Structure formats: C-alpha cells, structure tokens
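Quiz preparation item.
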C-alpha cells in the first residue's frame, strides 16, 4: 500500500538533483522552473512503472462488448458512449476508484495512503478520443491527475495530458507531452482560461498518421505534426491504451515541490464522464485504417485525415500567445545543443 507510489515520488525527487546540466544553470527561479519540467519528464517513466506494477495485480475484466474489429485488417469506427464499465477497468487504488451512475461517471480519489487509476480495455491505433474531466477542487497543491495514451515497452509512444494541482486560487498547470519510440522531452504547459475544477470540460486527443492535436473544449491547444520527413519518429505503429490516475506528487508538482499536499483536504477527487472514442481498435494483433471494409471509409475519414484548418490555427495561436507558460521549442537554455528538429516546422 503506497509502496510503489512513494517509490515513484522518491525517484522523481532524487533523480534531477544529480543531473549536472541543472547545476550549471544560473538563478534559483530558473532552476526550479526547469527542474519542474525536467522532473515531469522523468516522472512519466516512474508513473508508468507504478501503474504497470499495480495493474498486474488485477485480473482483466472483459465485458460483453461486441468486437467491431475482426482479426484481420478491418477498420472500425466505434462510438463508446459514456460506458465506463464496458470500456475501462480500474487498475489500482484499492476501492478509491469508482464507476457510478450506471457506468456514466467515474471518480478517482487520493488520500494519504494511496491514489487510484484506471485504463481502457482496448488498445487503439489512431483515433479521436474525448473525455470530460472535473479536477480536484480547492487546495489541490501536490496532486496530479494524469490522463494519457500510452503503448507498452521501453521504446514506447505516449500522448499526455497531466494536470498539476495548485493552492486554492492559483491556476492549475495543464502539462502536455508527446513520446515517440521512448523519447519525450517535448513539454508544453498551459494555464487554462477557466476553472477546471468548477465543471466538466472536454479534453480531446485527435491522433492520425499526420498529426496529434490536443484540444480543450474543442479549442486546439497543441498540434504535433508528423515530421518523419526530417527524421523525427512519429507514433504510428504502436497501439496505445488510455490511462488515468490521481496521485500524490508533492515533491515536484506545485511550484517545483515547494508547496506540499495539505492532507486535511483529503480525500481528493477527480471525475470523468462522457467518454467517446471514434477510433481504430487494435484487436488480435491487427488494426488498420486503410482497409476496404464496408464500415471503414466514410465513418473515419473526417478525423483520419484531419489537420488544423485556418480557423483552428488561429485559435491555436491565440492559446499559445495568451495561455502557454512553457514551450520546449523555445527553451534554448535547456537544449544548448539545439532545439528539437520538429520545432522548425511548427
Ligand atoms: C454477457 O453475455 C452473456 C452471454 O451472451 C450473458 O449471459 C450475460 O448476461 C451478459 N452479461 C451482461 C452483463 O450483459
Ligand atoms: C483475413 O482473414 C481471412 C479469413 O479469416 C483470411 O482468408 C485472409 O487471408 C485474411 N487476410 C489477411 C490480410 O490476413
Ligand atoms: C449516447 O447515448 C445516448 C443515450 O444513452 C444517446 O441518446 C446518444 O445518441 C448516444 N450518442 C452517441 C454519439 O452514440
Ligand atoms: C501555481 O500557481 C503559481 C502562482 O500563480 C504558479 O507560479 C505556478 O506555475 C502554478 N502551478 C503549479 C503547478 O505550480
Ligand atoms: C491545511 O488546510 C487547513 C484547512 O483545511 C488549514 O487550516 C491549514 O492551515 C492548512 N495547512 C497548511 C500547512 O497550509
Ligand atoms: C458528451 O460529448 C458529446 C460529444 O462527444 C457532446 O455532444 C455532448 O454534449 C456531451 N454531453 C454532455 C452532457 O456534455
Ligand atoms: C471506401 O473508399 C474507397 C476509396 O476511397 C472507395 O472506392 C469505396 O467505395 C469506399 N467504400 C465505402 C463502403 O464507402
């Protein structure tokens, strides 16, 4: 109980201190800021380990859902409509995660002993995935709600939303990242233009072979383009599950770890509703979004080839100008050897 969590917290806390790169940086504020980002990066590995370890303790529960994908290349459009009990399984937290309201609502809680988490039954290879989240309210400092897609293995792909809590009245940080073939370090962070704890808001990932678009309430906040033509691996071969967890990250989350979790506010709760995935399900080792199956074309075409249009680009620019608080593509101090190649084309 709590063992794996404290292990992850510890690795997150200790790891960056030994990294000479940070020692070279001048200025305490800068140091904390970079450390925050850098630690987040390292944490993802730790977090995945926690979930992988915890997840293994639970037997898989396969629902009665019709499999839309057949064993060979068949494209499927699946609308999974608010059905947490059919599409997800609770993987850890010893009763702290609950599926409520006939499977239409899921809640995760965190207290001093443990957090909790869930994952999707299916793996997906490309899709448009929407989820509504309502985050820990009040003094959420030290808490992190992670909601992400990830494949398995060391050279994994991953698409991340992470919500870093804050003291009452201070803004949440929405942290995003993209891993391809095990390499991340592509953080962008935002302050939202609304209070994400007051109501449910929709967080979406559009993932197709051309790009990954992160959106909030339909407003694109980030586009990660396929830049294979300039040698940047793009996540397109490894199917991913959806994961989410609420856990204690007081050693790094809020102001770089300066503000600790105040347990008098526990249990902390984050809620989920209205999941929808218009996506290709990975089944029996195969999935394809290019087949000639009858259900395939028209249904998936829209998102499968979607890019940001000019209106989307305008909104993206507005968010990035007014709400972005960190961009790895601008951080020349952190990458003295040069920014990532994809930064040139964004
Ligand atoms: C699942 O399917 C089986 C057989 O098709 C049926 O007996 C059972 O009641 C179903 N369970 C649910 C929860 O629908
Ligand atoms: C798909 O499955 C059918 C029947 O199960 C089989 O005959 C066919 O060869 C398979 N196609 C591919 C591309 O695997
Ligand atoms: C979701 O379910 C509701 C009723 O449960 C239904 O009215 C609605 O059409 C469904 N939406 C989709 C996109 O399937
Ligand atoms: C919390 O609020 C402070 C003050 O506005 C801000 O500097 C910080 O970035 C916020 N977020 C986190 C995760 O610390
Ligand atoms: C923790 O929160 C309680 C109220 O919920 C407050 O009285 C107390 O001062 C807080 N502790 C710290 C260290 O801020
Ligand atoms: C649920 O999501 C769908 C789109 O995915 C949206 O049209 C609908 O308004 C949402 N329902 C609620 C209650 O927000
Ligand atoms: C699927 O798309 C192909 C080419 O785009 C088209 O020729 C075919 O008629 C489509 N099939 C269906 C069922 O829409």
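Solution:
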């Amino acid at each position: 109980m709590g063992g794996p969590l404290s292990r992850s917290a510890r690795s997150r806390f200790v790891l960056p201190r030994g990294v000479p790169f940070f020692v070279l940086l001048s200025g305490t504020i800068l140091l904390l800021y970079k450390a925050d980002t850098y630690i987040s990066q390292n944490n993802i590995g730790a977090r995945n380990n926690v979930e992988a370890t915890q997840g293994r303790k639970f037997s898989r529960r396969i629902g009665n859902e019709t499999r839309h994908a057949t064993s060979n290349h068949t494209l499927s459009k699946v609308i999974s409509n608010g059905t947490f009990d059919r599409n997800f399984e609770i993987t850890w937290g010893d009763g702290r995660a609950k599926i409520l309201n006939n499977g239409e609502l899921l809640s995760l809680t965190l207290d001093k002993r443990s957090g909790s988490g869930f994952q999707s039954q299916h793996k997906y290879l490309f899709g448009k995935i929407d989820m509504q989240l309502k985050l820990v309210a009040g003094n959420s400092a030290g808490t992190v709600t992670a909601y992400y897609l990830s494949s398995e293995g060391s050279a994994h792909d991953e698409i991340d939303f992470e919500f870093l809590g804050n003291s009452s009245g201070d803004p949440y940080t929405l942290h995003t990242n993209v891993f391809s073939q095990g390499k991340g370090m592509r953080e962008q962070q935002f302050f939202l233009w609304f209070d994400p704890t007051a109501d449910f808001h929709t967080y979406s990932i559009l993932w197709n072979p051309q790009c990954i678009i992160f959106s909030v309430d339909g407003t694109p906040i980030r586009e990660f383009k396929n830049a294979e033509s300039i040698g940047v691996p793009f996540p397109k071969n490894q199917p991913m599950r959806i994961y989410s967890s609420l856990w204690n990250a007081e050693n790094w989350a809020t102001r770089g770890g300066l503000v600790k979790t105040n347990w008098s506010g526990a249990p902390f709760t984050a809620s989920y509703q209205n999941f929808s995935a218009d996506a290709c399900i990975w089944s029996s080792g195969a999935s394809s979004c290019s087949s000639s199956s009858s259900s395939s074309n028209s249904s998936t075409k829209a998102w499968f080839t979607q890019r940001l249009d000019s209106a989307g680009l305008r909104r993206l620019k507005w968010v990035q100008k007014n709400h972005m608080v960190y961009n790895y593509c601008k951080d020349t101090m952190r990458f003295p050897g040069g920014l990532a190649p994809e930064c040139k084309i964004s």
